[in-house]
Amino acid sequence: xxxxxxxxxxxxxxxxxxxxxxxxxxxxxxxxxxxxxxxxxxxxxxxxxxxxxxxxxxxxxxxxxxxxxxxxxxxxxxxxxxxxxxxxxxxxxxxxxxxxxxxxxxxxxxxxxxxxxxxxxxxxxxxxxxxxxxxxxxxxxxxxxxxxxxxxxxxxxxxxxxxxxxxxxxxxxxxxxxxxxxxxxxxxxxxxxxxxxxxxxxxxxxxxxxxxxxxxxxxxxxxxxxxxxxxxxxxxxxxxxxxxxxxxxxxxxxxxxxxxxxxxxxxxxxxxxxxxxxxxxxxxxxxxxxxxxxxxxxxxxxxxxxxxxxxxxxxxxxxxxxxxxxxxxxxxxxxxxxxxxxxxxxxxxxxxxxxxxxxxxxxxxxxxxxxxxxxxxxxxxxxxxxxxxxxxxxxxxxxxxxxxxxxxxxxxxxxxxxxxxxxxxxxxxxxxxxxxxxxxxxxxxxxxxxxxxxxxxxxxxxxxxxxxxxxxxxxxxxxxxxxxxxxxxxxxxxxxxxxxxxxxxxxxxxxxxxxxxxxxxxxxxxxxxxxxxxxxxxxxx
Length: 541
Known about the structure:
Keywords: Ligase. This protein folds into 3 domains: about 5-260, Rossmann fold; about 355-435, Luciferase, domain 3; about 440-540, GMP Synthetase, Chain A, domain 3, CATH 3.30.300. It contains 15 helices and 28 strands. The strands form 7 sheets. It has a 9-stranded mixed β-sheet with strand order 12-13-14-15-16-23-22-18-17. A 5-stranded parallel β-sheet has the order 4-3-5-6-7. α1 packs antiparallel against α2, α1 (about 5-15) packs across α3 (about 70-80) and α2 (about 35-55) crosses α3 (about 70-80). The longest helix is centred in the first third of the chain and has 17 residues, at about 35-55. It is globular, with a radius of gyration of 23 Å.
């Protein structure tokens, strides 16, 4: 027996009191909506039944094109209950990018927020496979007559449980753009994904329950509020919701136009949040700045864990966060859409956090391999790429070549390759060097951006930065830093170069330093190296 998400949420519906609050939206004014277990049960059951009535068959894809809001979660649960497949959509996509993803996923239904109605309308004639467009409306009715109303569909019906037999092998898609190339969908079987994300936050040493009944939920819920900071279209945000609601806990959503660190801090205090998940420096820096401004105005006594996933969390920012919250533990996980944690670090106020390159420990199921698939020995000085075995997706949807490149078999064991190049030290710690496809080749030397970026961000006046290689007649590629400084601050390029030179070899020091108001990152904090490189080449041409 193994877990199916539709069965899991049916069980939650039956065990929780209908009046138990399971979802809270928080906005800038603190006037967000509140949803009970009964409301979520009825809306998701009704919507699931309507999707089936509109022709939805097991395995059909449902794309959700929306920012964080209650309707995203209602649609997600309905998709699970109807045995359909969730497809995440980056809400920053324009019409061309959106069309590619909807065609690539073979989407049969598109659930979209009113803000994006024009983008959907622009490509609608090119999407003959779509059976129904469903608009999440803030007004009374959809903007266009070709779309069905989400509210009407979720409110039509008795709210009764679907009598449907499901499979643990029902799938969920997680589209990932990576650092290059077009987005591709990691295909996860639900039982396998649950084995990775379904750990009880109160007892993380225990394995994920294999049957809903093993959760032994109480009518009043799990009693642990979860603050969802990351976008739901990003794995970290989606996994937080799946786990929290599965354990009967209350999810607190930030319903803001973009990440608002002040609102997040207010929610931690207001709802007694014990743990938050962020994406490294991209989210940590705004939180630290908001704390600096607040000067202790927020009580964060409930906060015990700050979990970072998928992005580099520099020692400099860890130290700054621990200065404000000395009682917390920072859990730094290096994971990806295609795998579980491949490397990790735990930091607290007693930890020695040196500036410079980021070091983490190799996870038990991870290894480091050379290009010719020989295992790198700790302390050898040889660099290699991370590979993680264990809980893995089936591969990429409709992309056998990328699947073969990312999922390899060594000595009979299947591994996922996130793309991170590292140096494995004698104590099994890792120095992250960067992604192989953004490696800079300067005068024959391989230089990885992560190492230089972490060093630059340890400078007090650097808020964020990305490092790329630009064509150079002498060096082949010249290391170029694109730097975002702290507000209203200035610092000479030579000062930053000397700072970097303290920690790394001279050939890694940026030959060019460019300044921008904001570095190129997605809503999930991931670096856009392609746009950064284009900007650098234009500025230096």
